[in-house]
Amino acid sequence: MNAQFKKGVLELIVLLSLNNKDKYGYELVSEVGKIVDVNEGTLYPLLRRLTNEHYFETYLVESKEGPSRKYYRMTAIGKERMKALLEDWHTFYERVNRFIEESDTDEKR
Q1: Which CATH number describes the domain made up of 3-104?
Q2: I need a labelling partner for 81 at 20 to 30 A (CA). Which of 8, 15, 34, 108 fits?
Q3: pLDDT digit string, tens, across residues 11-23
């Protein structure tokens, strides 16, 4: 996938991933990685930024398998941001698809 496409939609995917369930970092990396190719070095700075912008809250949970895990929870502000990005995505998607369909491309021939 084109890196710029991925960068543009990654925040929305992360927000949607946390919409219904709190998750810890590696769990998010695994889930998001099923949709777009992403690694921890990309995702953790995004999680830090979204937390600093108050879209997420964090809390620690002790783990039987090692150190405590930091969980991310969506805030009310985060839900508002997710809804706004989702609306932007649908508008963008519809406009781009309409343009593609109306364009004279080799795929039509």
Answers
A1: 1.10.10.10
A2: 34
A3: 999 999 999 999 9
* AA identity, residue 78: G
Q: Are 69 and 61 in contact (CB under 8 A)?
A: yes
Q: How far apart are CA 52 and CA 100, in angstroms?
A: 38
For residue 79, the number of C-alpha atoms closer than 13 Å in the C-beta half-sphere is 7
What are the tens digits of pLDDT across the range 67-97? 999 999 999 999 999 999 999 999 999 999 9
**Parallel, antiparallel, or unpaired: how do β-strands 56-63 and 23-24 relate?**
unpaired
Query: Would you list the domain boundaries of the chain?
Result: 3-104
For residue 81, what is the enclosing H or E element? helix 76-102
What is the per-residue pLDDT for 106?
Answer: 63
Quick one: which of 36, 74, 77, 80 has its CA closest to 57?
A: 74
Give the number of other CB atoms < 10 A from CB of residue 75.
17
Distance CA 29, CA 47 (A): 10
Averaged confidence pLDDT in the chain = 90
